[in-house]
Amino acid sequence: MTNAPAPGAMDALTDVAGIRVGHARRRGDGALTGTTVVLTAEGGAVAAVDVRGGGPGTRETDALDPRNLVQRVEAVVLTGGSAYGLEAASGVMAWLEDCGRGFRVGPDPSQVVPVVPAAALFDLGRGGDWRARPDAALGREAAEAAAREDVGAPVPQGNVGAGTGAVAGGMKGGVGTASLVLPSGATVAALAVLNAAGSAVDPATGVLYGQMYSQTYGHAYGQMAGQPYEGVAERPDPARHAAAQQRLAAAREESAKRSAASVRPPLNTTLAVVATDAALTRAQAQKLAGTAHDGLARAVRPVHLLNDGDTVFALATGDRPLVAEDVFGDTAVLLAAGALNEILAAGADVLTRAVVKAALAAETVDGPGGVFPSYRELYG
Question: How far is CA 62 from the centre of its chain?
Answer without folding.
Answer: 19
